[in-house]
Amino acid sequence: MNGGRVRPAIERMTGFDAGFLYMETPSVHMHTLKIAILEADDALSYDAFVAGILARLKRLPPLRRRVVEVPFGLNHPVWVTQRRIDVPHHIRRHRIGGPDNEGSMHDLEQLIGIIASTPLHRDRPLWELHYCEGLEGGRVAVVGKMHHALADGAAANALLANVTDVRSAATPEAVQEEYATTDRLPSKVNLLRHAWADAARQLLDLPDLLRRTFRGVRGVVRARRAGANAPVPVLHAPRVSFNGALTPLRSFATVTLPLAELKRIRLQHDGVTLNDIVLATTSGALRRWLAAHDEHPASSLLAGVPVSTDERGAVPRLGGNQVSNLFTTLATDVDDPVQRLRRISETTAHAKEIHAQLGASILVDWSQFTPPRPFAAAVRAYSRLRAASWHPAAFSAIVSNVPGPREPAAVGGARLADLFSVGPLVDGIGLNVTVWSYVDRMNFSLLACPDLLPDVQVLASYFPAALAELDLEPPASSETPDQRISS
């Protein structure tokens, strides 16, 4: 688009990215969280952190993009790249604990719950960074809050690589003024003209998409007839207390397990994957939580598992979403932990087969044809009426596993001690468990709606024992399983 002498960079949002905007309501926030725990030791002051981020804006293109709606919702919105950001709005400072005492990880988790409970403003680039000082041991936490429309887990990983070591040996220059601009937003006429042109090009893809969808559905039918048995959302999901209409409030908790421990246990069970171990550990923790709350669903809980659709070896993306979902059992109706793991592994393999038959990109491609205004209006009405409480949830919980950095990293000279991440909740699903690995650790982050699941910290405390019960050959030690696993 070029309707004037100077214009900002403009890019049409994909229907899939825009879908995260349409799904957002006053009680459903579609942002993700990334939490970096830094061993600062005065190596990374707030001012140095801000200067380092400004010095890296060119390497962080999503941080300069804001959403501009198309008049009348005739097509998906556009991204407009701004060359200047409002630093006080986007980068905020917090003190954990009091002036005379250090803050704990629990204090940080409570603050993160508050940060997660408020939406991002659409009239600015969709992100915030919260610099949280005062943690015990002189540590600093940086909480990144980014709308899912900007980036999925894989893209966030690539962005993280461009944030680490934000300060070189030389003092970074704050380059905010370099980006100063008087560019105006695109005119309504320009937005409409290009919306129609993009929609016409889109329609040319429809015949091929219909053919691929027909082949995919036919492949799914064949796979199920051949024995591929995976749960069907809504039909196979039991009712539990943390499935229902969301409120705006969020609570947050973490637990860390050694990556070597998960890998060692995986080798004890033929044919299972590391992701199967993650699902089985989540299942064991949920079984304990359900029993403590006297909930006994008649069938197993189901997991919605986001999966990346990026091709293996693809160049890292710095934005956008290439993700689909598969649905599998958590086998919470199986008492024996080994049999539970086996059921999860077998069902997840079938779910992957069905997902592959349908085609990983089908959902993304069809989302291009989502009508923006009607879809967003329907979602808002569904949320306003609290309709998620009227029927069984599509599935029980979101469980995601994203490989994180394999090597130790630093930010502004401060060692990155730990890294956590969690995605958003969707209406009807009051729990998200996201796992990010960092070097030798598997960091589980739990985001919940406290009006549906009031004690997410208690649920997090069950994960170490849930992993230990999968261990067929526990090391000889006088320690209890919970002591052997850092939490």
TrEMBL record:
<feature type="domain" description="O-acyltransferase WSD1 C-terminal">
    <location>
        <begin position="320"/>
        <end position="470"/>
    </location>
</feature>
<dbReference type="InterPro" id="IPR009721">
    <property type="entry name" value="O-acyltransferase_WSD1_C"/>
</dbReference>
<feature type="domain" description="O-acyltransferase WSD1-like N-terminal">
    <location>
        <begin position="13"/>
        <end position="278"/>
    </location>
</feature>
<dbReference type="GO" id="GO:0051701">
    <property type="term" value="P:biological process involved in interaction with host"/>
</dbReference>
<dbReference type="GO" id="GO:0001666">
    <property type="term" value="P:response to hypoxia"/>
</dbReference>
<comment type="similarity">
    <text>Belongs to the long-chain O-acyltransferase family.</text>
</comment>
<protein>
    <recommendedName>
        <fullName>Diacylglycerol O-acyltransferase</fullName>
        <ecNumber>2.3.1.20</ecNumber>
    </recommendedName>
</protein>
<keyword id="KW-0808">Transferase</keyword>
<keyword id="KW-0444">Lipid biosynthesis</keyword>
<dbReference type="InterPro" id="IPR023213">
    <property type="entry name" value="CAT-like_dom_sf"/>
</dbReference>
<dbReference type="InterPro" id="IPR045034">
    <property type="entry name" value="O-acyltransferase_WSD1-like"/>
</dbReference>
<keyword id="KW-0319">Glycerol metabolism</keyword>
<dbReference type="GO" id="GO:0019432">
    <property type="term" value="P:triglyceride biosynthetic process"/>
</dbReference>
<dbReference type="GO" id="GO:0006071">
    <property type="term" value="P:glycerol metabolic process"/>
</dbReference>
<dbReference type="GO" id="GO:0071731">
    <property type="term" value="P:response to nitric oxide"/>
</dbReference>
<dbReference type="Pfam" id="PF03007">
    <property type="entry name" value="WS_DGAT_cat"/>
</dbReference>
<dbReference type="InterPro" id="IPR004255">
    <property type="entry name" value="O-acyltransferase_WSD1_N"/>
</dbReference>
<comment type="pathway">
    <text>Lipid metabolism.</text>
</comment>
<keyword id="KW-0443">Lipid metabolism</keyword>
<keyword id="KW-0012">Acyltransferase</keyword>
<dbReference type="InterPro" id="IPR014292">
    <property type="entry name" value="Acyl_transf_WS/DGAT"/>
</dbReference>
<dbReference type="GO" id="GO:0004144">
    <property type="term" value="F:diacylglycerol O-acyltransferase activity"/>
</dbReference>
<dbReference type="GO" id="GO:0005886">
    <property type="term" value="C:plasma membrane"/>
</dbReference>
<dbReference type="Pfam" id="PF06974">
    <property type="entry name" value="WS_DGAT_C"/>
</dbReference>
<comment type="pathway">
    <text>Glycerolipid metabolism; triacylglycerol biosynthesis.</text>
</comment>
